[in-house]
User: Fold this.
Amino acid sequence: MKNRLLELRQLLHQYNYEYYVLSQPTISDYEFDMMLKELQQLESEYPDLYDPTSPTNRVGSDISTDFKQVKHSFPMLSLGNTYSQEEVIDFLNRAKKLVPEDMEIVCELKYDGTSISLTYEDGMLVRAITRGDGEQGDDVTANVKTIRTIPLRLQGQDFPKTMEVRGEVLMPWNVFERLNQEREEQEESLFANPRNAASGTIKLQNSKEVSRRKLDAYLYSLLGTQLPSKTHYENLQLLKSWGFKVSDAVKVCKNIDEVFEFINYWNVERKNLPVATDGIVLKINSLAQQEELGFTSKTPRWAIAYKFQAERACTRLNSIDFQVGRTGAVTPVANLDPVQLSGTIVKRASLHNDDFIQGLDLYIGDMVYVEKGGEIIPKIVGVDLDARLLIGDKVRFISKCPECNTTLIRYDGEAAHYCPNQMYCPPQIKGRIEHFVSRKAMNINIGKESIELLYSKGLINNVADLYSLTLEDLISLERWGQKSAENLLKSLEESKKVEFHRVLFALGIRFVGATVAKRITNQLSSMEAISSATIEQLMEIDDVGERVANSIVDFFSNEQNVDIVNRLKQIGLQMEGEKSEELISDKLSGFLIVISGTFSQFSRDELKLMIEKNGGKNVSSISSKTSFLVAGENMGPSKLEKAKSLGLKILSETEFLNLLK
Ligand code: IVH
Assistant:
């Protein structure tokens, strides 16, 4: 068994490298997951074989950590940077004056993430530190271990005994977009760009969440007292041979023309890369020449960053619209004179919130700079004060809802203003209906304009009213024929089959996005159970924190909401979870089981599912009726105390899994 454990570790390191670094997987995801689970099981049986570089560290843990500050063995300096090609020529001329021999220049992409310094001892990753203030940074080793492209153990033999490798941690564009979409659903503030998302993620207290966010890393330098090669380029190639992800976009240039060829090529081609880049880094190749050139107080004289111009335009600010969303949040949007920017015509830009507007000190009629840099949505980055005519008013945030005139409120600690008139404010009513019918929710075949029309005719005022619409109602509307009316009615009928978790999501409860709705219905299998759950019961569910729990309790304490949900139930929407698949066994039948704490092999949700599949019932609080408690790490002392005082049987995760074998 011990041999199997060691073999699994080695195989999983190899498969991980093939999948993430080479992008050439040799086994299926399923096989990989199964082997990882097997390894986790074996590691829990043989704790004496603990290895901090085991592939099981990639999944992270729920235990939160405060970061230790660690001093860098070599300070982490920054690069001098420029936007001008002349200054690149000046830099090379200066270097040539100081070093008369021939000089090679390595050109690399400048990755736009957050820098990291990795220490390896005897080929094992022992520490990962953020840049911090350059002298010392945070020890984020547990988080960095979840990054699949960073080797925990090096390949080959010829690496230095102790070495430091530096590079950039990045969040790929597709991961960034997905994360922001999820955050939008849960009404969390959005990351402005992948750089902020990467640096926010690497500093998270919970490495499991870091693991879920799928960061990537490119390495760009090797440091140590005895380096294997005398040139930067060869050291990079060695890093690659030890299993690191080193970009292929690296070129040794012999002259200025080759440097500019590289710059011009990548200024266009970088738009096709999966990660954000913001320039090119030029480095003198020879380490001896680097030493000769040395450093100024802050930056090396042997390297410079040429930064790409963020695409920017200047245009007139004509007016501001304040839009009210389905949750009552008010978003200010700037209306601009149309202007060409990065291949699209920009007419509007978000102004986010009051703080953002105050920061810009805007007046209507101002000429404003609009940029589309790392961001997807164009934003106003400044005002051309020289062109200010001061003929328009200062832009101020409104105090009343533009739609229903209710006084806006701003919650403590939140940047947004809200209209609290949830039940009667028209865009909130229409917004809730639009959300209800959307594809990820009830998937009902009706567009925004039709909802607007039905609402304005007084035919729908809430989501339940949709199901009272008749063929006559619909065909009497402008531009509605028999066919489209029948389609809508058919689609409404179909929606009665939509699964329970999507019905919960469709209700539009604040902070209950599609993923959270699924988690909740996994645990509480009917609308009845959810509506009567306490804050504490709700908070026992993975991903449900105080904010979500409060919002659910709030929602169901409103009579109008309860009334709508009851009507939906009578109409025949799914208000109960589809029973999870067949039982695997009835080993736990009749048992009431409490799960508490954090676990290493399975998530709490997975353990709960196992209980259900084996005929048991998972309950949230300990009482004399509880059959036993499965205790993970970090469980609350009061719970443990209570279990002991009742004389309850307490099982560890492994004991519980053995019970099911
Ligand atoms: S070399 C002495 N190479 O740019 C500094 N840096 O100020 C050596 N960066 O935040 C840095 N891509 O993390 C180097 N190919 C690359 C890079 C790179 C991105 C970042 C670095 C730092 C900033 C430099």
